[in-house]
Write a structure and sequence with these properties.
CATH topology of the largest domain: Rossmann fold
Number of strands: 5
Radius of gyration: 24 Å
Structural class: alpha/beta
Distance between the termini: 40 Å
Order of helices and strands: EHEHEHEHEHHHHH
CATH superfamily of the largest domain: Response regulator
Number of helices: 9
CATH architecture of the largest domain: 3-Layer(aba) Sandwich
Length: 220
């Protein structure tokens, strides 16, 4: 690593709320990385092993993991693979290694790592990788929050309103919906209006997007 980077106002203010978890069994490296990342106003938590990291309380808000590939105990790559196999949601990972090779970095990137940095690395390269990882996690958290809101709205719909909305996104007109459901056209129109308002969908296109998102959420 090079000399510590000084705090800069160039980074989005929201990233000051981010937390970076460092896992490296080299104490000097942990301290150097902590100093570097705290210099740009990030919260930092450093651990000597994956096991220590897993035992630590979870944080709220955007977060990422700066993880050494070769560790005593469970390795960084083994941890990444284990989390994926268990289907556990995990924060974006920036890998680092003093013994990096192409095959190892490709394996990590294919498994979803944000970046793979070979030691020694430039301070700016680490900062850029961490910012990218935090931005990815922030976007994911915003998506999850939006989906939770959609699910809450969906739960407020009656069975009839849900049925009508499914017909709407299938491209059916009120008259067709009424015929398919065996109800009056005016009743279908009322159900449609209620469903669209509850889901905060102003157009059929928005309703289609919402239903697709909910379908993906249920399948996940």
């Amino acid at each position: 690593m090079t000399a510590p980077h000084h705090a800069s106002t160039a980074y989005p203010q929201v990233l000051a709320q981010g937390t970076v978890h460092i896992v490296d069994d080299d104490e000097l490296m942990r301290k150097a990385l902590t100093s570097l990342l705290e210099s740009i106003d990030l919260q930092v938590r450093a651990f000597g092993s994956v096991e220590d990291f897993q035992r630590a309380p979870k944080v709220i808000g955007p977060a990422c993991l700066v993880l050494d590939v070769r560790l005593r105990g469970q390795s960084g790559l083994a941890f990444q693979k284990s989390a994926m196999q268990k289907g556990q949601p995990h924060m974006p990972i920036v890998f680092m290694s003093g013994h990096a090779d192409i095959a190892m970095s490709v394996k990590a990137m294919k498994a979803g790592a944000v970046d793979f940095l070979a030691k020694p690395f430039r301070d700016q390269d680490m900062i850029d990788a961490v910012i990218a990882a935090l931005e990815r996690d922030m976007q994911q958290l915003e998506t999850e929050q939006s989906l939770r809101g959609l699910r809450r709205s969906w739960d407020t719909l009656t069975a009839r309103e849900r049925e009508v909305l499914r017909h709407v996104v299938a491209g059916m007109m009120n008259k067709q919906i009424a015929a398919a459901m065996g109800i009056a056209e005016i009743t279908a129109k009322i159900y449609r209006g209620h469903a669209m308002r509850k889901m905060n969908a102003r157009t059929v296109v928005e309703a289609v997007q919402i239903m697709r998102a909910l379908g993906e959420a249920r399948a996940a």
